[in-house]
User: Fold this.
Amino acid sequence: MTEKKRPTLVHAFIPIGFLVAFLSINVLVFGSGATDGPNQIALVMAAGLAGVISWSLGYSWDEIETSIVKSISSAMGAMLILLVIGSLSGAWLLSGIVPAMIYYGLQILNPTIFLVAACIVCCIVSLATGSSWSTVATVGIALLGIGKALGIHDGVVAGAIISGAYFGDKMSPLSDTTNLAPAMAGTDLFTHIKYMVYTTVPSLVLTLIIFFVWGFTLDTTGVTDTATVLSAIDNAFNLNPILFVVPALVLFMIVRKVPAIPALMVGSILGGIFAVIFQPQIIQQVSGLSGDPLKSAFVAVMKSFAMDVSIVTENEMINGLLSSGGMAGMLNTIWLILGAMIFGGVMESCGLLKRIVEEIIKWAHSTGSLVASTAVTSIFFNLTAGDQYMAIAVPGRMFADTYRKRGYKPELLSRTLEDTGTVTSVLVPWNTCGATQSKVLGISTWTYAPYCFFCIISPLMTVLMAYLNYKIRRLDDKTPS
Assistant:
C-alpha cells in the first residue's frame, strides 16, 4: 500500500485559493448569472485540483470517491426538500394560496411596521416548525410579495424574512441543527437552547430595532398603489379564506414532527386539488385547453408541479410576483449543491480541511480567541464545504476535546457552532442554504445578504460575549454562571 503523507498548509490552501479566485472571476464576468453554471464548474474544477493533491499524498481514487459520496449523501435530504418546495410553490400559486396571502396581508400591513412584523412572523413560524426552509418557502414567499407590493426593496424584505426564520431555526428544539450542535459538543438539547438565549435574544433585539428604525425612514411617496394590486388579484383569483386550510395543515404537521418532505408533499398535492376546486379560470389559462375540464386540470397541475408557470393579470407589477419554476426551477440549485458537496468531500478525504483547523487552534489561547477561532472555522466550512451541517459537525468534532481540556463546559462550544455555522450558511451563494433560499425567494444571495442583520450580528455577539467573559461556563462551576 502507498504510504499516506500528512498535508501541509500549502496543500490545503491551493484548492481554496483556486476556488476563491475562480468564483471572483465568475462574479465579475457573469454577475448574478454566476450561479447558473459558472460557479458549479468552478467547484468541480477546484475539487479536481484537490483530488490531484489527495492522490499525490497517497490517497487512492476509491478513498476519494467514498468521501465524495458520503458528502453528497449528507446533503441528499436538503436536495429532496428543495424539489418538493419547487412543486409546493407552483401548486400554491395555481390554487391561489400565495395570492390570497398577499391580498389579505396588504390589507393588514403598512410599510412602517412591515419589516418588523415580517421578521416576528417568521420567528414564530420557524420556532413552531423548527425549519427555516419551510418558513421561507411558505409564509416567506407571501411576505416577499407583500413587501414588493408595498414598494420595499427586495433585499431588505428578504433580509427580514431570513433573519426571523433563522432565529427560530436556531432556537427551536425541533430544528435539526439545534439537535446536531449539542450532539457534536457533548451536551444536552435544552441546556444548549437555554445557553443560546444570552447571545441569540440580544442579536434578535438589535435586528428588530434596525428594521423598526428602517421602517420609519422608508419613503412611502412612491409606494405602489395597493388598491390596483388588490383589484388585480381579486379579479384574477377566486379568493376564499378556506384556501388557508392548506398552509395551516402543513404547519400543523411540521409542528407535530411530521418529516418535512412528506408534510410539504401533502401541501403540494392539496394545493393542486384546491386549484381544481377554486381556480377553474386559472387552470384553463395555464393549461391552454378548453372543452375538456379533466385534461385541462391534469395538465395545469402537472405544469405547476414540474415547470415554469406564470399567471397573467391586468396589473403588470403583480404579474412579476405570480410566477414559479416548479421542480425544474430547482435543478440548477441542486447542481450547485452537488458541486459544493463534491468539493467538500474531496477536501475532507485526505484531511485538507482538518489541517487548516489544526493550525487555527494553535493561535487560540484566551476564551475570546478560542471562541473566535471556532467561529472563523465554522464560517470557513460554510464557505468551503458548502453545507451548514459540515460547518457544525466537523468543527464540533475537532474542537470538543480542546474545550474540555481548557475547562469549558460543552454548551459554550455548541452555542458558538450555532451562532456561526447555522446562521452564516444562508449568506454564502454556493452553500446549500444560500443557494436554496436564493432560488426559493427569487433573489440573489448577494442582494439579500447585507440585510440579514440577525445572521450578521449573531457571530459577532458570540465572540463579543467571549471576550467580555460574560456568562462563560466552566467545568469547575458548581452552578451555571
Remarks:
- The mean pLDDT is 84.
- The chain has one domain: 77-337+351-476.
